[in-house]
Amino acid sequence: MKRILQCLVLLFFIISCKETYKSRDNITIKITKFSIKNSSIRAIKVLNDTTLAYAGSNGFFGIMDLSGKSIYTKQIKYDTIYPEFRAIATTKKAIFILSVGNPALLYQYKNDTIKLVYKEENKKVFYDAMQFFDDKNGIAMGDPTDNCLSVIKTNDGGNSWYKIPCSKLPKVEQGEAAFAASNTNLKIVNNNVWMVTGGKKARVFHSFDKGKNWTVTTTPIIQGKNTTGIYTVDFFDENNGIIAGGDYTNKSETSINKAITNDGGKTWKPIAKNSFPNYVSCIQYVPNSNGKKVVAVSTNGIFYSANTGENWIKLSNNGFYAIKFVSKNLAWLAGDGVIAKMEINY
């Protein structure tokens, strides 16, 4: 036990630093960074006003507060594998973390106990994102292992999970898959769920009944290569949403990489064509902004729009993989070896 504690202290030694930026639109942000050693963090979940849960590479899972203090840390090992976690979701009673790669491992954290609740072995398995509709029903999606996206569900609060057969899902096109960039290529609003893809095709899969029935919509987002497509999606309500992505291997590519919908995803309109941010790994609406204010992050920096993505300004050169808002004035950021809080004044 002593050895484990010493290891965790070394691996999760937190170093705090602060940087402040001010844009020409009178938006001031202050970023406070907390170093998370030996882990790349792409999956974060706001638990309450002061607490964040995160999961990353090398099997790391943790809970921390706004001061950077570690509330709980654990390095999870399965057999000889330290899983790479890129998806996280919660109910009122538990936190769930899901790994990429073979085998796919889905863990439940509850009452300070971590339990494996789902395992899938397949050379093609690669899960990307996970969310809950409510405290009973949850869903996760990933790359195809057959001729459809991999979709697993739970209806008992995450205690057990089952995979939806391809006979009940739309077929994917050749070379179509998804990106585990920030746990945001799946979005839930009420009973609606949207899943976004990339690669040779960039499409939006939509279900209005918690994943029982599906429709698929093509989008104008750049596609055609394994690294192009939609990386992230967010919806303000059941009708208004935004998607973004690009080409991870060419982050300066000027192309159509952002689009919006006002009909629940039936149609998508390109925005800010050939304009930065040229590559986006995570995009989120600012709370209480009536769907007008949007923040996007990538390794290229932090970007802000006050008119639903039509025009953008760059707030910071600091690169991150993911962002989650606590309120309109506070957000968490995650990146390679770092978690940060971002305070915003408009």
Commentary on this structure:
The protein has 346 residues and is mostly beta strands. The protein has a single domain (11-345), classed as Methylamine Dehydrogenase, Chain H (7 Propeller), CATH 2.130.10. Helices cover 3% and strands 50% of the residues. The chain is built from one helix and 29 strands. The chain has one helix at residues 2-11; strands spanning 16-22, 28-46, 51-56, 60-65, 70-75, 84-90, 95-100, 104-110, 113-120, 127-132, 138-142, 150-154, 162-163, 176-177, 186-189, 192-196, 198-199, 203-207, 215-218, 228-235, 241-247, 258-261, 269-270, 282-285, 294-298, 301-305, 313-316, 322-327, 330-345. The strands form seven sheets. Strands 1, 2, 3, 4, 5, 28 and 29 form a seven-stranded antiparallel β-sheet that branches. Strand 18 (203-207) and strand 19 (215-218) form a beta hairpin. The N and C termini lie far apart (47 Å). Residues 1-16 and 20-24 have low confidence and may be disordered.
What is the strand and helix layout of this fold?
Layout lengths: L1 H10 L4 E7 L5 E19 L4 E6 L3 E6 L4 E6 L8 E7 L4 E6 L3 E7 L2 E8 L6 E6 L5 E5 L7 E5 L7 E2 L12 E2 L8 E4 L2 E5 L1 E2 L3 E5 L7 E4 L9 E8 L5 E7 L10 E4 L7 E2 L11 E4 L8 E5 L2 E5 L7 E4 L5 E6 L2 E16 L1
Antiparallel strand pairs: 1-2, 2-3, 2-29, 3-4, 4-5, 6-7, 7-8, 8-9, 10-11, 11-12, 12-13, 14-17, 15-16, 16-18, 18-19, 20-21, 21-22, 22-23, 24-25, 25-26, 26-27, 28-29
